[in-house]
Amino acid sequence: MNATFEVIQWFTDFGDQAIVLPTSVFVLLFLLLSRCWKTALAWAISMGGVLALMLLLKLGIGACGPALGAGALDSPSGHTASATMLYGGIAAILFPRLGSRVRFMLAISVALLFGASRVILHDHSVIEVVIGGLVGLGGLAIFMRLRGPGPSRLPRVWIMLVLAGITLLEHGHRMTIEHRIHSFATLRLRALICPSQPHIGL
């Protein structure tokens, strides 16, 4: 069982912000250097929107969660949301000829796999990963809607080498951003915007 959990943890680490953030920046820089202005703007709006919305949801639900009357809803899954957007978007950029149905199925698969890993590891409840998955899929849908044509000659090998390098350097380094957001929401923000809710220490 421990070995199974280690494999699942290894997988879910691909959705950690330690990988998501530098990879997202690299994708944006690549698009800008390739002069794909419309696609770069779409990426910035979509990925930035996913991260910003998850931040707001984590702050709001963390601060006023008890008022919602849902004990299983405490902190929506940022791993599920950002990984769905990141890997779904990269697939769309690297393989633009994929049909819309194939892209949709791939994105759903990513959301399900990362969501399941978070639930199995007891990091999130089912409703929390569902929210994260929906946010990620929504961001990806916006990206697909707004993006323009990709580079005419896509250096897939070099892009994949850079992505692999980021993964090798950062995989396993778990950032504490989500924990800090939740701590701030429950320990500080709750008293400001939901003073009637009970104080919960971590």
TrEMBL record:
Q: What is this protein called?
A: Phosphatase PAP2 family protein
Arranged from A to Z, the UniProt key words for this protein are:
Membrane, Transmembrane, Transmembrane helix
Record the organism.
Answer: Lichenicola cladoniae
One of its Pfam families is PAP2
InterPro entries assigned to the protein according to its UniProt record, in alphabetical order: PAP2/HPO, PAP2/HPO_sf
Instruction: Using the record's annotation, list all stretches that form the Phosphatidic acid phosphatase type 2/haloperoxidase domain.
Output: 75-146
Query: What Gene3D superfamilies does its record include?
Result: Phosphatidic acid phosphatase type 2/haloperoxidase
Show the SUPFAM superfamilies listed in the entry: Acid phosphatase/Vanadium-dependent haloperoxidase (SSF48317)
